[in-house]
Design a protein that fits this description.
Signaling peptide TAXIMIN 1; TAXIMIN_1/2; elongated; 77 residues; mainly alpha; membrane; 0% strand
Length: 77
């Protein structure tokens, strides 16, 4: 996986794969929470806590990308 600025860190990518898989599972849970949260927001838009849960679910969905970016940035070429 090469970054846009010209540095390529395949070792960081390979070391991060198991953690990316775990975060992928977390993101699947995040998708379910996001769908349920959106349905609850449509039913009762006055619930502010549901909005916070939906935002947390979006962070969970993006977890694999953040994990891989972090691992590739930690390993030097």
């Amino acid at each position: 996986m090469c970054c846009g600025d010209g540095d390529c860190r395949p070792l960081g990518f390979l070391l991060g794969l198991p953690f990316a898989f775990l975060s992928l599972l977390i993101s699947i849970v995040g998708i379910v929470v996001w769908i349920v949260g959106l349905l609850l927001t449509c039913i009762c838009p006055c619930c502010l806590c549901v909005t916070v849960i939906v935002e947390l679910a979006l962070v969970m969905i993006k977890a694999p990308i953040h994990v891989m970016e972090w691992f590739t940035s930690q390993i030097p070429c």
